[in-house]
């Protein structure tokens, strides 16, 4: 059986760390642009909130499993994503700041559900990939593949299975990039200032919709609670407590 200390698993883990580090660095040009323009434009905070929550959970898991590879890269990720969000909050308009802070305190699974579809819908609506960097999607996809095989090698399916989602949505983003890359409004002037204003208005409506939505039923959890806890939770929502005399 291959363990974490096995040379093959360690080599794959090192490769995963390198690729994850490239994923972490991918938003640097985006936030340099935000800093230079003193504006977040149409960039959204959702991917970075999700990345911070994910890195925090993986950091806790790494501490419990004493996995140095997971511990090191997720420590770096927590610091980097915190810096990105600090820059975003510094230059974002008021409603975007409020929406970002609400996401930070929202249930992580709901944030994940929003993040998996939000960026793709924006690209399809605007017919533009200006605000969806290719290299972020590329390194996210490759990193998901490597971490998936790392989890398989060490027989840790809690590491392997979440990266299946990462792979699927990374591929989806890359497909969208190649479909819409030649329709970039920055290059051909296809989108006017009025259209950009309309897109921002739509984004604001979505933020308000997500902030006011009452999520009652469908919640996607990567690590669901134990069956016994699920029964207790279901009973608590369906039947009143009965006092036994």
TrEMBL record:
It is found in: Cell membrane; Golgi apparatus membrane. One of its GO terms (cellular component) is plasma membrane. Its main location: membrane. The chain crosses the membrane at residues 7-26, 46-64, 71-92, 129-151, 157-180. InterPro entries: SWEET, SWEET_rpt. It is a multi-pass membrane protein. GO terms for molecular function: sugar transmembrane transporter activity. The keyword Cell membrane applies. Keywords: Cell membrane, Golgi apparatus, Membrane, Repeat, Sugar transport, Transmembrane, Transmembrane helix, Transport. Gene3D superfamilies: 1.20.1280.290. Mediates both low-affinity uptake and efflux of sugar across the membrane. Belongs to the SWEET sugar transporter family. This is Bidirectional sugar transporter SWEET. The gene is SWEET12_0.
